[in-house]
Each structure stands twice: as structure tokens, then as C-alpha cells.
Amino acid sequence: MKIRLILLLLVCFSSISFAKITTRFPSSFDDNHLPSDLASKGKELLSYETHYYTQILDHFNYNPQSYQTFQQRYLLNDKYWSGSKKNAPIFVYTGNEGNIEWFTQNTGFMFEIAPHFNALLVFIEHRFYGKSIPYGGNKETAYSNKSTLGYLSSTQALADYATLIIDLKNNLTATDSPVVVFGGSYGGMLAAWFRLKYPHVTIGALASSAPILNFGNITSPYSFNNIITQDFKGESENCYKVIKGIWKQIEDTAKTTGGLEKLRKSFRICKNYISQGSLQNWLSTAFVYTAMTDYPTPSIFLNPLPAYPVKEMCKAIDDPKTGNDMFEKVYGAANIYYNYTGNATCFNLNDHSDPHGLGGWTWQACTEMVMPTDGNNNESIFPVSEWDYNERARFCQSNFGIKPRPDWVTTEFGGNNIERVLKKFGSNIIFFNGLKDPWSGGGVLKDISKSIVAIIAKEGAHHVDLRWSSKEDPEWLRQVRGREVNIISNWLSQYYQSLIDHIY
Ligand SMILES: *[C@@H]1O[C@H](CO)[C@@H](O)[C@H](O)[C@H]1NC(C)=O
Ligand SMILES: *[C@@H]1O[C@H](CO)[C@@H](O)[C@H](O)[C@H]1NC(C)=O
Ligand SMILES: *[C@@H]1O[C@H](CO)[C@@H](O)[C@H](O)[C@H]1NC(C)=O
Ligand SMILES: *[C@@H]1O[C@H](CO)[C@@H](O)[C@H](O)[C@H]1NC(C)=O
Ligand SMILES: *[C@@H]1O[C@H](CO)[C@@H](O)[C@H](O)[C@H]1NC(C)=O
Ligand SMILES: *[C@@H]1O[C@H](CO)[C@@H](O)[C@H](O)[C@H]1NC(C)=O
């Protein structure tokens, strides 16, 4: 069985048996093209200055080489901040595994609530991503081998955030301004962990779609694909059955003489490259990411998509015009993910472009981010397969010459028996999850205490709450955001009260 990289916001590895290590971003995505919902209202709100901070390479030991530094990028918006004299709050986005500008553009929520809170906005880029590259900003050097990549880890990233926030507050003489951290996906995991590890630096965390329980044996390895399966099944049984059946049909066709040419024609694949595995990979990528970004309004997060894209895919599959031609039906579904703009002339299966610079996740997934997500049971919309740690370990050995440490995240941050552990320890964390998001299976879905709360949206997808609002937003989404704003207001009130109590 071969490994494949699904990329995510979190890249994960998938052993959907097909192809070799492939996919990054299967993308015809235009980085300069703002989402349509953003285009309408965000353009004037989305503004920031870019800053660089001289960050230390290794926070955790005192070897001479640890003292090397690099330039860490952060984005700042002080348009709404009412200043340090008023101890006005600071909202910090804990950057994830990609270019921080991309996450910033997709986190309209912070821009939209900043005026209400008179908050300073800070978006910090994660080390080794975007422009925050150690080794003099030289990405090739930084990514050369395990000796250089060894400094890419979540614990270093959290220490970077703490260092930078403390220094920034000093510079602004805002040491008493409360800091609230925000993050989605891996950034959400970082936000939650930051609150647990650095309670003296932040008063609370909004951790959106943060699968902090997708480690070790806490979450079933089938959960991720089961949720995708339910997303499609929920639209129509036929849609589910057609997709479930397509893998074998592709396999059977590929075996026949002229089979690959037939597949090329059916799926409008470019002349440069086709293989059975890469085609299956390309299709499953479309289903995985469409399920993740099944937003209620048109979006451009990974690719441009219509509102409720899973429904649109199933409409294409259920379309009676395509009769019994399963390839034509599934082509129609893929076309929604890969060609919503209508500009694609053919689909390039050999496209390994990575427009958002997410490649470092491969290293992270080979060291600490061992998240078992790619089991498929017999109900799965994908071919049956088992999550296989050894397969991951072999990949990491051959790719980087390293052995993953699958137990490190739960050792460092916890996760086992989280309800019991955090009931008495920790406070002020919101875990948001949309249940359509395959990552929600590894999320915190139940309140842990009065101040560590789970907000669940049955219809929600991957950190939908953090996106720009739109007039077309459904009521449930407005309510989710309203609740989040209320909870954050309470944290702030309590904090200001504690300042007063302390003085008198
Ligand atoms: C790793 O890469 C760095 C930077 O390119 C280089 O100086 C070093 O010799 C390499 N180490 C190994 C073990 O290849
Ligand atoms: C704080 O100010 C110092 C001195 O100007 C500067 O070097 C440093 O980068 C600033 N810190 C941040 C977080 O911008
Ligand atoms: C998960 O469970 C399997 C089988 O029960 C065991 O072999 C493995 O060591 C466990 N992994 C972790 C990270 O606890
Ligand atoms: C095709 O791309 C161009 C340029 O990127 C864009 O202006 C146009 O709207 C696109 N066409 C469609 C149908 O979206
Ligand atoms: C993309 O969509 C346009 C408009 O619907 C269509 O004409 C074109 O054939 C599609 N491209 C591919 C590769 O299917
Ligand atoms: C999956 O397996 C279960 C138990 O073995 C069986 O009851 C069920 O019918 C199977 N489902 C499919 C879709 O094959």
C-alpha cells in the first residue's frame, strides 16, 4: 500500500491505497483573488501593516547554535485599538502551517469584531512558513534536512508566540492589556494549547475546528472518512453509492487496453500525465476538501466554490441528464471543486504547486502531528483501508530519515481523559466544531466546565465561524458568532474586574 498526502489545512496522510506521495494543492487557485464574500465587505476592513520580529531559533536549550535568530513576520491592525492607557484588548491569531496572509484573509471574524472590542489585531506567522523562515530566510536551506527542520515544532511555535506577544506589549507599554488568542484548525490547536501552557500571556482562546483529540488512540481512525461519508450520504443515497462505486470502476477500466485513454477523456485530464492512482487521488482530494469547506455561502478558501458545495456535487451526480454514465456523473462532481470558475481547459494530475506554502506540514506530520485519520471501514465512501502507523513511519524514514513520535503531543499537551483533566485545570477556552467537518471527529464536542465550552454547529464546516460574515449567512452561524462574542466579552469583563480588585 502506498501513502498519499492529503493536504488540509492540516495535511494528513492517507493510505487510500492509490497513488504515491502526491498531492499538495491541486490548485488552480489565484492567490490574489479575494473571496467573493470578502470582496463585498472585507476589502475595506482587511488591512494590516507587516512587521518583523527577531526571533530566537531554539527556545529550549542553551547550546550556542540555539542563539541563532530569524525574522518572524506578524501583521498588525491598530485601527480599532483604543490604546494601552485604556488597557484595550489585543486579539492574536496563532498562525498555522502556511502563509499568514492567507489565514488572515480567511479570518474576517477578527476584523469584524475588533471595532466592538476596540481591539488591536495581531496575526503571527508560524516559523518555517510564509516569510518566517529560519536560516536567513532561505527556504531551501531551512528545509534541507532533519538538522535544519528539527526546529520546526509546535512547542517552538508556541514559545515564539509568547516571546513575541510579551515583547510587543512592552513596546506598546500595554502590559496590562488582555490578550485573547484565536486560531482555526492547526492554528486552533495552537490557540487552545497556548491558553493551557501560557495562561500568564493570554486570558482565553477561541479554538475553532481544532482536532486536539485526533492523536494516539483517542479518536477512531475511521472517524474522519466516516464524516465525509455522512456528508455525501446526507445529500442523497445515490450520490454516496455512485462515489463509493467509482473507485473499482476506475480500477477495472484502467486495466483494459485503452482504459487510461478512456479515463482521460471521461475526466478531461490533460495529456501530460495520467495513472489510475493519480486519478483516484485527484478525485478523493476533491471530496475530502469539499466536505471540509462545505460552507453556506460561496467561498474561496482552497478553491473557489459555490455555497453548499457538497449539495452541488450531489446534484451533478444525481442529474438525470447523465443517465447511467458514472464517469460523467463523477466528472460533474469533480468539476465543481476544480473548475467552478469555468476556466479550466483540462485537469493536470501532475500539478504539485503549493500556493499557500504548506509543505512544512509533511515534516510536522512525520514528527509530532501523527493524526490517524485515514481508516476506511466498509461503509466509507472511499475504498476500505486501515490506518497503518508503520506505513507512516516508513515514509518518514525514507523521506527525512526520522522516526515519528506519535505519543509526544498527548504527553506535552494532554488529550487523554480531557474532560476529567481540564475540569479542574484550565479555563476560558471555546472549542467550536462544525459537524460536517471531517476534523470535528477529533474535536472537543462537549462542555468540559463552565469556562471550557464546546460550541457545535450541526451544519458547520471547517472553522466556518472565523470566516467573514455575509448577508446570506444562516441563522445558526450568526448565533454561533454571537455566542463567541458574548463569551469573549465575559472573559474581558472578568479580567478588568480582576485588575480593579487587585488595585483596591
Ligand atoms: C543539512 O543542511 C544544512 C544546510 O543546508 C547543511 O549545512 C548540513 O550539512 C546538512 N546536514 C546534513 C546531515 O546533511
Ligand atoms: C520592540 O521594539 C524593538 C526596538 O525597537 C524592536 O527591535 C522589536 O522588534 C519590537 N518588538 C516587536 C514584537 O515588534
Ligand atoms: C493504540 O492502540 C494500539 C492497539 O491497541 C497500540 O498498539 C498502540 O500502541 C496504541 N497507540 C498509542 C499511541 O497509544
Ligand atoms: C476566468 O479567469 C478570469 C481571470 O482570472 C476571470 O476574470 C474570469 O471571471 C474567469 N471566468 C470565469 C467564468 O469565472
Ligand atoms: C470548465 O467549465 C467550463 C464551463 O462550464 C467548461 O466549458 C469546461 O469544459 C470545463 N473544463 C473542464 C476541464 O472540464
Ligand atoms: C459492513 O459490515 C457490517 C458488519 O460486518 C455489515 O452489517 C454491513 O452490511 C456492511 N456494509 C456494507 C455497506 O457493506
Automatic annotation (TrEMBL):
Entry-linked InterPro entries: AB_hydrolase_fold, Peptidase_S28, Ser_carbopepase_S28_SKS
Signal peptide (from-to): 1-19
Gene3D superfamilies per record: alpha/beta hydrolase, Serine carboxypeptidase S28, SKS domain
GO biological process, one term: proteolysis
Any one Gene Ontology molecular-function term assigned to this protein's record: dipeptidyl-peptidase activity
SUPFAM superfamilies documented for this protein: alpha/beta-Hydrolases
Organism superkingdom: Eukaryota
A Pfam family per the record: Peptidase_S28
Keywords (A to Z) from UniProt: Glycoprotein, Hydrolase, Protease, Signal
Keyword Hydrolase: yes
PANTHER family: LYSOSOMAL PRO-X CARBOXYPEPTIDASE, PROTEASE S28 PRO-X CARBOXYPEPTIDASE-RELATED
Family: Belongs to the peptidase S28 family.
Identification of the protein by name: Lysosomal Pro-X carboxypeptidase-like
Lineage: Eukaryota, Viridiplantae, Streptophyta, Embryophyta, Tracheophyta
